[in-house]
Amino acid sequence: MSKKIAIVTGGNSGLGYATAKKLCDNGIITYIIGRTKERTENACSEIGKNARPLIFDLGDLDKIPALIADVAKKEGHIDILVNNAGINMKKELIDVTDEDFQNIIKINLSSVFAISREVTKVMKANNGGSIVNISSMAAQYGLPKVIAYSSSKTAIEGMTRAMAVELAQYNIRVNCIAPGFIKTKMTAKALDSDPERKEKVFSRTPMGRMGEPEDIGDAVHFLASDEAKFITGVVLPVDGGNCIGF
């Protein structure tokens, strides 16, 4: 129990990478879950000795219990879970098929529930822990052409509150971060292909710029730390004021 143990889903790039690095830099052994072996192992090599690769597809819901059981057996405890992994799809609502919608929900919502349930079992047995979910501006206000993504992230915020209330008795805190527009490859691709949306983003962001991935990592680390020991059930926008911008 000398070191805390964390799991970060989708931790081999973007916001997840910055989060995993922040945790590792603060002495927390961090398991990074990623689908791509090479990318995940390379990320762990870059981050350093506290990073551990876990090659896994979160779409395999029935295999999640065994995955978490393996980590718990090896380490004896899991102290932090960061549900960061997610996928997006940009389509007109009328063009979104049932299969499209369910695929987004499976990865962005169902897998979050499944892995949180399994990690909760471990945390409960070890008298506590911290879960941090990653939401989105798509849950703060309406965004066009991302109906499935918006639905999944809005549900994540509701799940956060429900989990926080139910799990507080076990000393398990559950919080959520709603990132604004952060400098990542995914965001750049989305905005650069839609100049009108890009202009709208900056015009309604009071701080007038995009955030850095490290801004999310810092916020996650705070919510997962003992410094936030009396905080649970919150949704924290890290967005330069975007969600309240006029």
TrEMBL record:
It holds the Pfam family adh_short_C2. InterPro entries: NAD(P)-bd_dom_sf, Sc_DH/Rdtase_CS, SDR_fam. CDD domains: SDR_c. It comes from the Bacteria. One of its GO terms (molecular function) is oxidoreductase activity, acting on the CH-OH group of donors, NAD or NADP as acceptor. NCBIfam families: PRK07231.1 (NF005559), PRK12826.1-2 (NF009466). Belongs to the short-chain dehydrogenases/reductases (SDR) family. This is NAD(P)-dependent dehydrogenase (Short-subunit alcohol dehydrogenase family). It comes from Saonia flava.
